[in-house]
Amino acid sequence: MNDAMPLGPGAEFDAIRRLLERWGPLAAGIGDDAAVLRPPRGDLMVVSVDSSIEGRHFEAGWLSAREIGYRAVAAALSDLAAMAARPLGVLIALGVPGQWRAQLDELADGIGEAVGTARTHILGGNLSGAGELSISTTVVGSAYAPLARNGAKPGDRVYVTGRLGAPGWVVERLRAGEPPGAHRERFARPTPRLAEARWAADGGASAAIDISDGLGADARHVAAASGVSLDLDGARIPCVDGVSVEIAVRSGEEYELLLAAPRPLDCVEFEARFGIPLTEIGRVGTGTAGTVRISGVAAANVGGWNHFSS
């Protein structure tokens, strides 16, 4: 069991007790009005919030309740990874409509799995009724020197972690009424690259962003924030098997990292340590701020991928 305070009576608190039973030691100090944190001395606090709303960010028919809970928290934790922050805890705000209440345990298990994988804790949150299922996750972390997207300088090398394209490929198949295929697991269970980002920061990375809107769109965010251009080699972009570079460039919800670094990062050491590739895919240039050029990819295909827009 966790060290939560005793809760009062009522259906809402009965549901919270159910959640706490599922989370066990993953939940820390729940029951007061707010959480109290003590970051490591000298570190800066890094805080972000991310919402996952039924019909907008996910389709219930594509994912299990456990996967929906897991993905919502993993997406928020990826924002900490983008800044090379170490997670201190998460707060979960759940809006649960009547038709989802029977699956509350499964949602809780998915949330707990993501929290446990990140080696952090659930600090509190909120539970309410809603017209559609929504999960808002606030993540709290710390970093001595957070990475940001505005640190890229001309001449920096540009890297990407992992292999891209799986989420975009799966969504295209699902929208066409086809089975999701071999890459479904990568779509349903993304991994926030928390340790990988801290490794890159320790190795001298100058800027970072997580690939949530697609490589092309997020590269533009870095270029605009840093006041630079990016020149990427389409032939070097690492894609999952059977997926074209065009899909990989616009595939969102990857949660891999796009990094810039003034000196070479050790790609061999990275892969040996984390089991995924780190690939140099281009350079930071001095062209028009916010411009991204990807050789072999038409400019029209460089934009982001909005999976669930209506």
Task: Give the helices and strands, then pairings.
Elements: H1 11-23, E1 44-53, H2 65-82, E2 86-96, H3 104-117, E3 122-129, E4 134-143, E5 157-161, H4 166-175, H5 184-188, H6 194-202, E6 207-210, H7 215-226, E7 229-233, H8 245-250, E8 257-261, H9 267-274, E9 278-285, E10 292-295
Parallel strand pairs: 2-3, 7-10
Antiparallel strand pairs: 1-4, 2-4, 5-8, 5-9, 6-8, 7-9
Structural class: alpha+beta
Measured by DSSP, the beta-strand proportion falls in 15-25%
- What is the percent of helical residues? 25-40%
Globally, the shape reads: globular
Distance between the termini: 42 Å
- How many domains? The number is 2
Major pleated sheet: 6 strands, mixed
The rounded Rg comes to: 20 Å
The whole-number mean of residue pLDDT values reads 89
In CATH terms, the superfamily of the largest domain is PurM-like C-terminal domain
- Number of H/I helices: 9
What's the architecture of the largest domain, going by CATH?
Answer: Alpha-Beta Complex
Low-confidence stretches: none
- Number of extended strands: 10
Write the CATH fold name of the largest domain.
Answer: Phosphoribosyl-aminoimidazole Synthetase, Chain A, domain 2
CATH top level class name of the largest domain: Alpha Beta
